[in-house]
């Protein structure tokens, strides 16, 4: 009896295969956003050796591809400039498949861990500020669509994921990435064009979770055998390789404009420069695999967090590694969010102020990708320091001609040769910069700013963007 069942199952498979209809990956479907003014890739599967024709509503030009021995096919279609005009695409292998309500606009990937994954409606006990307002105003933002790639693990790279595109509205906005959605709001409103978000992320993941097998084998000691992974990382979110294979690989053929990234909490404690190098290498890997050139990469420096000791420095040391990465990753930008944590959120790994995070990422994109140079997008940075007697004079860059305050400047510490830091007094004068003194340190050697796990300061520039944490020592 079992032999007969297997025979009919095999016969059924053969019959279905001979009548196979063009199959598309789930990311190609109704409501999708195509990258405007590009040669957007469309792909899928069909019977080996079959010709698939592709026709688009915005052009008389037709495209075709022949499937390979594994039934795979791919074509590149010229997309129109961004518009709110609904488009359609028909795939024909003798049997037609049409997708509709397609828009042409700007497509951005939302990558990283839980602070990127965190939806507009928040997580349990982790609210997002402005949720109700986002729901009430959702209909004002026409043309923002998103697709959430399911967070799954795989030992091998996957080429499809169970997902579908959603149109932003009161019923759907709550499930969108908050950081991603508020980024899209700013781009959509400023440029007046549709924005598509491809959300490929997973809470708790490390940078190693997204690096590929070849890289991990050559450059790390990460366990890549399944049993060894489970033994070392009982929490699956920390495991290397698997999330990139299962959650990011399915989007790599999709044509996108760039990537926004919010990750790092799970790498706190990494040795000096390790995270800097691996993040740089991850960006190189993604750019290689997207095959779209040096696409922009904008990312978020993690927020202050108690990390089990408010006075420890392992949090700011990871932020320092992120800052250093921004200096070596081409076509990138980093945003500081030191000011976007409320005093009562010292033990909240998911701060609630996500709108400002998304908007600061959008400032980077609007200035650097879309050429709006009149937008001030950068936080101030430490430039240099001069010490005279008991006083340190610190100069900044990217202040846009001003800092936000003359009084009650907080966040600075000074140490002498004993390497013990004490809270310092700080003031500002436009010809001298920041003037820092400390009664306990008569012969200062080093200055730190906001360089504790929970130790943010309050200095901002003329754009009201916060000063990056820094230290002048390397202790």
TrEMBL record:
Source species, domain of life: Bacteria
Endpoints of the signal sequence: 1-20
Alphabetical keyword list: Hydrolase, Signal
Pfam families: SASA (PF03629)
Every Sialate O-acetylesterase domain range: 106-366
Protein name as it appears in the record: 9-O-acetylesterase
Species classification: Bacteria, Pseudomonadati, Bacteroidota, Bacteroidia, Bacteroidales
């Amino acid at each position: 009896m079992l032999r007969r069942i297997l025979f009919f199952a095999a016969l059924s498979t053969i019959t279905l295969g001979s009548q196979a209809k063009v199959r598309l990956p789930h990311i190609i479907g109704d409501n999708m956003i195509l990258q405007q003014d590009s040669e957007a890739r469309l792909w899928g599967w069909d019977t080996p050796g079959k010709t698939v024709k592709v026709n688009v509503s915005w052009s008389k030009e037709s495209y075709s591809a022949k499937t390979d021995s594994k039934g795979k096919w791919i074509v590149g279609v010229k997309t129109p400039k961004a518009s709110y005009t609904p488009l359609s695409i028909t795939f024909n292998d003798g049997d037609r498949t049409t997708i509709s309500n397609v828009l042409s606009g700007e497509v951005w990937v939302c990558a990283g861990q839980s602070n990127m994954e965190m939806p507009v409606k928040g997580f349990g006990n982790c609210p997002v500020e402005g949720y109700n307002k986002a729901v009430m105003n959702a209909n004002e933002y026409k043309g923002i669509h998103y697709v959430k790639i399911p967070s799954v693990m795989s030992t091998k790279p996957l080429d499809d994921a169970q997902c579908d595109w959603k149109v932003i509205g009161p019923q759907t906005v709550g499930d969108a990435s908050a950081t991603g959605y508020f980024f899209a709001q700013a781009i959509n409103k400023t440029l007046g064009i549709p924005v598509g978000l491809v959300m490929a992320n997973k809470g708790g993941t490390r940078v190693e979770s997204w690096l590929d097998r070849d890289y991990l084998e050559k450059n790390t000691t990460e366990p890549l055998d399944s049993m060894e992974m489970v033994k070392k990382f009982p929490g699956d979110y920390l495991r290397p390789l698997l999330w990139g294979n299962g959650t990011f690989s399915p989007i790599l053929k999709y044509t996108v404009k760039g990537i926004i990234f919010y990750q790092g909490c799970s790498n706190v404690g990494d040795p000096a420069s390790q995270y800097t190098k691996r993040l740089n290498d991850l960006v190189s890997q993604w750019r290689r695999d997207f095959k779209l050139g040096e696409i922009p990469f904008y990312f978020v420096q993690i927020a202050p967090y108690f990390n089990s000791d408010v006075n420890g420095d392992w949090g700011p040391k990871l932020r320092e590694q992120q800052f250093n990465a921004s200096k070596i990753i081409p076509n990138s930008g980093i945003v500081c969010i030191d000011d976007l944590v409320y005093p009562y959120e010292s033990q909240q790994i998911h701060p609630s102020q996500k709108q400002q995070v998304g908007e600061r990422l959008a400032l980077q994109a609007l200035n650097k990708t879309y050429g709006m140079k009149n937008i001030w997008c950068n936080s101030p940075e430490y430039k240099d320091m001069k010490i005279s007697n008991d006083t340190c004079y610190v100069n900044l860059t990217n202040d846009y001609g001003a800092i936000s305050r003359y009084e009650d400047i907080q966040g600075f510490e000074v140490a002498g040769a004993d390497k013990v830091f004490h809270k310092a007094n700080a003031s500002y004068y436009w010809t001298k910069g920041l003037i820092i003194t400390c009664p306990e340190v008569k012969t200062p050697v080093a200055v730190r700013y906001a360089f504790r796990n929970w130790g943010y300061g309050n200095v901002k520039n003329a754009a009201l963007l916060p000063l990056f944490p820094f230290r002048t020592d390397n202790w």
